[in-house]
Structure formats: structure tokens, C-alpha cells
Inverse folding.
């Protein structure tokens, strides 16, 4: 699961190694400590630095920004990566092992 700004591909959140049986995430799953994520899931650092959801925050008065939320199906059970793996490394491994993906795009402005 990744969420990024479509305009610049700034990763505002990355979660990997979600069990294949995961069909929803509970409220609070974006907390930096990752305690609300399913067992085995890893919430890695974002392009802002620390883990957790970086939030949608376009400049006030700017055109609404587009945000993409993508879920990837992989041909392997889990990615063998350290918890501090960068979004670029996670993205490389995801795309190398991808079977399919689904993306939801949303717009947000203030």
C-alpha cells in the first residue's frame, strides 16, 4: 500500500508485507508506531522521513492536488527488506514482484 502525490510522486506513506487476507485497515492504522496494522505488516519511512501518514496538505489557495492510493498484489509472500527501507527501494522490490495493482485517485485542496 502506498499513497503519493500524483504531481510529484512524494511518498506520504508506505506499508508493505500486509497479509494477503487483509481487506481493510482499522482507524488509526496510519499512526507512526504501526500498532494498528495487521501482524507482520511494516510501515516504512516516507519521503518526509519518519513512518506514518504524511497527510494531504497542498498550499492554501493552490489548485487541488491529486493523491494516489495503490495496493499491489505480489508473487511473493513478503518483501525481505529492513524496516528503514526507503520508498525507492520498496517501490523497486514491489514492481519487480508485482502481479497486479489497483489505484484510487483523490483530489484535495484547501
Amino acid at each position: 500500500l502506498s499513497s503519493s502525490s500524483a504531481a510529484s510522486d512524494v511518498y506520504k506513506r508506505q506499508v508493505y508485507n500486509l497479509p494477503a487476507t487483509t481487506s481493510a485497515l482499522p482507524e488509526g492504522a496510519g499512526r507512526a508506531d504501526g500498532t494498528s496494522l495487521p501482524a507482520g505488516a511494516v510501515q516504512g519511512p516516507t519521503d518526509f522521513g519518519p513512518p506514518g501518514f504524511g497527510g494531504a496538505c497542498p498550499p492554501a489557495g493552490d489548485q487541488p492536488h491529486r493523491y494516489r492510493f495503490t495496493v499491489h498484489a505480489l508473487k511473493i509472500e513478503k518483501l525481505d527488506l529492513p524496516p528503514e527501507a526507503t520508498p525507492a527501494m520498496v517501490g523497486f522490490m514491489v514492481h519487480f514482484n508485482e502481479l497486479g495493482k489497483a489505484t484510487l485517485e483523490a483530489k484535495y485542496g484547501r
The chain has one helix and five strands. Strands lie at 2-5, 11-16, 42-43, 65-74, 98-108.
